[in-house]
Each structure stands twice: as structure tokens, then as C-alpha cells.
Amino acid sequence: METKEKLLEIKNLKQYFNAGKPNEVKAIDGVSFDIYKGETLGLVGESGCGKSTTGRTIIRLYDATDGEVIFKGENVHGKKSKKELMKFNRSMQMIFQDPYASLNPKMMVSDVIAEGIDIHGLAKNKKDRMERVYQLLETVGLNREHANRYPHEFSGGQRQRIGIARALAVQPEFIIADEPISALDVSIQAQVVNLLKQLQREKGLTYLFIAHDLSMVKYISDRIGVMYFGKLVELAPADELYANPMHPYTKSLLSAIPLPDPDFERTRKRHSYDPASHKYSADEDVRMREVNPGHFVYCSEKEYQQLKAASKS
Amino acid sequence: MKNILEVKDLHISFHTFAGEVQAIRGVNFELKKGETLAIVGESGSGKSVTTKAIMRLLPPGNSEIKQGEILFDGKDLAKLNDRQMQKVRGKDISMIFQDPMTSLNPTMTVGKQIMEPLIKHQNMSQSAAKERVIQLLKLVGIPNPDQRFKQYPHQFSGGMRQRVVIAIALACNPKVLIADEPTTALDVTIQAQILELMKDLQKKIDTSIIFITHDLGVVANVADRVAVMYGGKIVEIGTVDEIFYNPQHPYTWGLISSMPSLDAKDEELYAIPGTPPNLLNPPKGDAFAPRNEYAMQIDLEEQPPMFKVSDTHFAATWLLHPDAPKVEPPAAVLKRMKQFNRAKK
């Protein structure tokens, strides 16, 4: 791990909506993690736990309430000149959940994809621009005839491919994929996941993959973070997290995923999670602690000692 | 076991501006007493249309049951008029919809909504109905039923709303419960609770359930038997073990191998190429043939009949014809088949 280059550092990120008002929502409440170059970090949790907000705050769709997002050594948030913003926007892109809502229905596919190319002035002339669009379409498994069509002429899986082509158009290093497959059919999900993996191999992309389908997340991610009510409760390499979940919420989440295996389902035991079970006292220092190398758990000092003892035996 | 519902050679078309869409093209199945039949398939395969036809909830203007029977209790539901159907709907057969956010009336208290079927179908008095509703709310695991009775849907969370929808569906102890993706809009932890609740209730009141979903994990969890739909037809039907451990249809193979197993990592996921057929002009032969790497010449020319694999297991693929060449199913499926054969021994 140490030899790997940190692409993104998120430090104590906070995002409060309606801050200071009675209806304040702490959507993200002090989340810290790093993303290494070339890896896929999966972020899972139930709806409303703040996983999408985390992605959107990282890419500056929201202004963070507090904390830092450091991308290649530079703080992303805070005052920025237009030029700096442009540079940053080029290196970080997003793929959205709903391919039916995220493409402008009035724009031709070529314009949807080339919007970033136009904004950043990447194409030398009209011919070059179209050449780039054609190439992008082919990269994501569509063909050049599709460039002159409108989004409504495509199926969900094809639209998501267009969304991916748009994200790739400005040659980013880092892509936030916010539930890119949950709106798609099972047979199409595999197509899109394979495409994302292939692009990562070819272009050395780094992904933050947000999802609630845990088996897909395990398949695509190198490391997985589990969020619960605005906090990161566990962060570990994907295999380690599944083999050896430590936080009781992770255990309950993993025990709830139905697997396509009837024999397994007949003997499934489900754990439920009660946040009150920790019985943290007010002065206890609860934070992320590294129990095994690379395996972080949100716990108190006492729990840490217990987990540590349990993992040794 | 007794068949409670039989669907025979059902054909349904929608009349659109573009022409006639043949959404259902000859569906046959039966539902036995007390069992759960899962119907799986991708969007547009006709699973929701089939069940909406059973409930007679298809839009009257542009849809048409072209031929076929839906036999329930000796009656053909396809031939009932609106009035007669109202006596069945909500009483003998009821339905749970996908989205609990939109299937409840936002302007009515939850209690009133659950009372509706009781008053309509069982001529209960207001006070008796109220008592029964409180019981039902307890049954589906909603705490403080007395207070909850007076609240509106927006005061409930997604999982709690789905419990209310289930309470409405179960109010008259229906013989058949149709659940159309009842957990798709919910989180995994809530989904697990709702599935447990449904299984529990099924044991208590002995209903038969038709469970529509595209999540094979959920199928493995709830189903006794599974029907796989593709292009408006059932392409394979069998017990849950037969479908998961001994699948015969290439489409079922594709579905099963496109799910990542928890121990697979670096191997590429199997993806079914292409997209589902357009039922405006359904293909002449097997609808799956253009996406099927095992397709033979005959698949393009003639639709395969249902071949019998075992007494409970049928599949519509020419590969099962005695003259068909032996083919090797994908690796993920082979692994499951081996497991199945071992278990049988």
C-alpha cells in the first residue's frame, strides 16, 4: 500500500444541509479516506447514508461545510480562479445513476459527448471534434452512426455508455460513478461493469464506485468503504471486508444481501444492527482505527482492543 | 397439490401508434396452493403484463387479451366484466406494487386505506374493521399501531410504507398474492426484513404468491418454483433448485453467469450481448436467438416448444431436442450443475 501514490485525500469532510437551522441534516459527518492511483474504491451503504453526497461533494457539486479534498496535492475546495477550476474539472468526471435523466434530450449524442471537448477547447477543428466523438463511441462499444441520434433513441444500457463516453471525453484521471448500474437490467449491468473495468485497464483510471448492490461492488472494487448515517464505519480491501467484517453494521449489511444460491439462502442467518448497542459514553474517543493492516474500523479504544484481540486469535 | 390458478396460452397485445406490440405471446403456468412462484426476466419481457392481466389492471383502451384463459376457482378471469372482477380483486387475489411511495393515497390516513377492502368485501362495521386493521398493523410489524392508524403515508419510511401496502393486500386473506418487485425500491437491510415478513405471513395464512423480480438473489431466497420470461414467453420453468443448479435454457445460463459470485474476482463477467427483442415485430424464430451464442439454424426459423426435463422442469430451447448437438454451458453454470449432481447422489 505504501508504495502506491495517493491520488485523492479526503480529510474530515463534512456536508451539512440547512446548517444552523432547526432542520439541519448532517449528510456527511467527518469522513476521511484516501484513494490511490489506479484503484477502485467502492462506497456502500443504505439510501440516505451520505454516499452520493460524498461523491457529489468531492467533485464540488456541493460546497463542503468543512474539511478538505486534496487532489494530487491541491485542495479542491475553497476559492479558485476560473482557470484552476477548468483544470480541475478536466481531471475529475462523474457518471450518474439514471441514464434517462442525465442526458439532455434536446441534444444530439455527438453534442452531449463533445460538450466537454468544446468547453475545454480540446479539438483543433470540426473534423477533429467529430473524430474524437467517433473514437469515444467506439471505445464504449457504440458505433459512429449513433452520433447523430438523440438520447431517446437508445436503451438504458446504451445511454449509460453515452454517459461514460461523455465522462471520458476530457481524458480525466478520476471518475466518480454514482450507482451507474442500478437503473439497468441484470443482463446489461454486466456489460457496463465489464466496460468500466476494461477502460480502467487501458487508461489507468481511478474510480470511486458508489452503489448499494454489494456483490457488484465486491466484484469491481479493490477496497470498500461502508457508510452509515454520514460516517464511514469500515474501510478495508474488498476480500478482507467480506471475509472478515468487523463493524456490526457491516456484518448486518452483508448478512442481508440475498445470493443467487438457494442452498445458501435456506441456511442464511441475518444479523440486525442496533446503533445503541455500542453504548459509547459521551467522552469516549470514537474514530477510525486500523485493526489489521489496511483494515479500518470506526470504534472506541475499548472496542479496538477487543477487535484486535479477536483478529489475532 | 391443488392448482389454485392456471394461465393457459395467454396472448396480450397493446395497440400503439407504431402498431401492435405483442407483449405476451402464449404464456402457460399454474400456481399451486401455498407455493411461491417467482417470475424473472428483464424489463419488457412481459412479467408485469402477465400479472396485471390476472388482476385485470391493463389499461382498457389500448390493451387486448387476444386469446387464452386465466382460470381461478373454475372461473375464467379473462372473461369477467368490471363488476364481477371487483369482487375478486383485493379479496381473492391482491397485489403489492413496486413503489410504496406512489401506491398509497397521500390524502388518506393509513388506517382508512387498510379498512377499505374490509368494508367493501367483508361488510365489516367501522369499529370491527378498525380492530382488524390494528391487528393487521401488528401482524406486519408496525410498532404503535394505535397511533400509526391515524397517520398519513408521508409520516412513514419506505420500508414501513411497504408494510402498509402488504397489510392492505392481506386484509381479506387472499388466496393469491401478486408481488410486483415489492423490494426493488428498498435498501438491502429493509428488503431482508420484508422478505422475511412475507414468508412468515405466507405460512400463517397459507396464500400462494407470485413474486416478480429481476434480482436472482431474492428469487433464491423466496421461491419454490421459478419461471424465466423472455420476449413475452416463459422460456424455462422449474423448481428453484432446478433453475439455479440445472438450468437448460441459454438465456437462463446467461442470467446466472452475469451475476458475480462472491468468490470470483478477476475473470471477466459474462455479459449477454445485444438488447432484448422489439415485440412490435417479434422475430419469426426463437426471440433469444440473435443474442444466443448457441443458436442453431432452426432457432431463426421456428419457435422451440417446451421440452420436458423432469416432471417439474420444462425449457423452450431447441438444444433439448434429441437431434441437437451437445453443447457445453458456460463455466459458471457447469460449476453449479456439478454441485447439483453431487447433491442428487
UniProtKB/TrEMBL annotation, chain A:
Gene Ontology BP annotations: peptide transport; transmembrane transport
Lineage: superkingdom: Bacteria
Span of domain ABC transporter: 8-254
UniProt keyword annotations, A-Z: ATP-binding, Nucleotide-binding, Transport
Pfam families registered for this protein in UniProt: ABC_tran, oligo_HPY
Entry's Gene Ontology molecular function annotations: ATP binding; ATP hydrolysis activity
SUPFAM superfamilies: P-loop containing nucleoside triphosphate hydrolases
Similarity-based family: Belongs to the ABC transporter superfamily.
PANTHER family xrefs: D,D-DIPEPTIDE TRANSPORT ATP-BINDING PROTEIN DDPF-RELATED (PTHR43776:SF7), TRANSPORT ATP-BINDING PROTEIN (PTHR43776)
The name this protein goes by in its record: Peptide ABC transporter ATP-binding protein
Source taxonomy: Bacteria, Bacillati, Bacillota, Bacilli, Bacillales
TrEMBL record, chain B:
Principal subcellular localization: membrane
Subcellular location: Cell membrane
GO BP terms, alphabetized: peptide transport
UniProt KW keywords: ATP-binding, Cell membrane, Membrane, Nucleotide-binding, Transport
Membrane topology value: Peripheral membrane protein
Residue stretches making up the ABC transporter domain: 5-256
GO molecular function terms attached to this record: ATP binding; ATP hydrolysis activity
Gene3D superfamilies: P-loop containing nucleotide triphosphate hydrolases
SMART domains recorded: AAA
Gene Ontology cellular-component terms listed: plasma membrane
Family: Belongs to the ABC transporter superfamily.
Protein known as: Peptide ABC transporter ATP-binding protein
Annotated organism of origin: Mesobacillus campisalis
